Amino acid sequence: MDSVQVKKTALLKILKKNLRAHKRKSNEALKIYQEAYIAVMEKNLEIAKKTPAEIVPINQISLPVVQDHVTDYEKVIGMLELSVDETIELDFQEYNNYVQDEWGWSGGFNSVTMAYTSCSSSSSSTQGSSPSNSKGSDNSLSVTERGIDC
């Protein structure tokens, strides 16, 4: 099958649900990314204050960046809302993107967000653990030169 006819209202409902899920995942991962980034910067500041300026060993920040693809959803939703057609024809790729929520960027997005959110859920059982206060002792999450480790 090369294409499928779908009801515009059903497609809009699916896309809006997928958009909400994307925003939730993205926001959760971005929050953890920000905390980890701040932790590395704070560690660098501590090093800079304790070390002679000419030999400050600054830690590089190599945290994977969370990509936000909200506009991809919003563009399609906007087009559908303006469409006068009640039935929309989707080709295989469009069906895969809009209905299955499998975009060309999905693999990378899911890998990065899972890296952050899995750290969050594994550390949520440890009281007070967050990247910004992790010192590597009793917390499940730590920031290293390689990035973020659970």
What is the topology?
Layout: E1 3-7, H1 8-50, H2 70-82, E2 87-91, H3 92-98, H4 106-123, E3 142-144, E4 147-149
Antiparallel strand pairs: 1-2, 3-4
Helix pairs in contact: 1-2, 1-4
Summarize the structure.
This protein has 150 residues and is mainly alpha-helical.
Describe the structure.
With about 150 residues, the chain is mainly alpha-helical. It has one domain. The chain is about 55% helix and about 10% strand. The protein has 4 helices and 4 strands, in the order βααβααββ. The strands form 2 sheets. It has a two-stranded antiparallel ribbon. Helix 1 runs antiparallel to helix 2 and helix 1 (about 10-50) packs across helix 4. The longest helix has about 45 residues, at about 10-50. The termini are far apart.
Keywords:
two-stranded antiparallel ribbon, 11% strand, elongated, 4 helices, mainly alpha, 150 residues
